Amino acid sequence: MDKKDGLLKVDVLSIGLFGLAVGALTLGLVQMGIIPHNDDLAISIICLMFGGIVQIVAGMIDVKYHDQLGGTALTMYGFYWTTVFTVKILGLVEGFHWDNILFLPLVAIYALFSAIMIYLTGHKSLTLMVLHVFITIVFTIDVLIKLNFPLEYYAGVDHVIIGLLALYHAMGTLVNKFKWEVKIPLGEPPFKLKYN
User: Fold this and answer.
1) Following DSSP, what letter does each residue of 111-149 receive, concatenated?
2) E strands of the chain, at which residues?
3) What tens digit of pLDDT does each residue of 115-161 get?
4) Pairwise CA distance, residues 141 & 138, whole Å
5) pTM here?
6) Nearest-CA neighbor of 184 among 166, 170, 194?
7) 10 Å Cβ neighbour count for 182?
8) Residue 170 and residue 25: Cα distance in Å, rounded?
């Protein structure tokens, strides 16, 4: 923990990544057919809370600590999960139905955003960069799904990988803060420009 501007700075990236891990693993197991769709309302609430709200809260704290990269990534991905699963909950509870094509601009912009994040997180750690590679892949798959390609299973596999990478990085960030001899390797940043 560091002090910044008189505040005790906690690395909230691990909190946001724990939320992402829960949301991504839950969604991935649904898309792969392991968790049944008859639990869609409960699944949507879990994804809304952990994938959405937890990341938004962590991102806002990161913004308060003047961490533009972490704050931007966590809040923007959190708002994505919050939007998608609020719409899904409204559909399940109120019977609204929206065409997949409505979400095409949203997922296409997030695919581009995630591709840029590969480069930016490559200045932080290898694990964080690889996580964004898989996030970019899942958004690209989702673009194709919105165009009616039957790729939901593959999106599920990718979401499980994202969940496991997010959990690994969250645990590494948390464990590595302690003065133990054992450290969880997160990988040296592949790009050597210094990021503040």
Assistant:
1) HHHHHHHHHHHTTT-HHHHHHHHHHHHHHHHHHHHHTT-
2) 2-4, 7-9
3) 999 999 999 999 999 999 999 999 999 999 999 999 999 999 999 99
4) 5
5) 0.91
6) 170
7) 7
8) 14
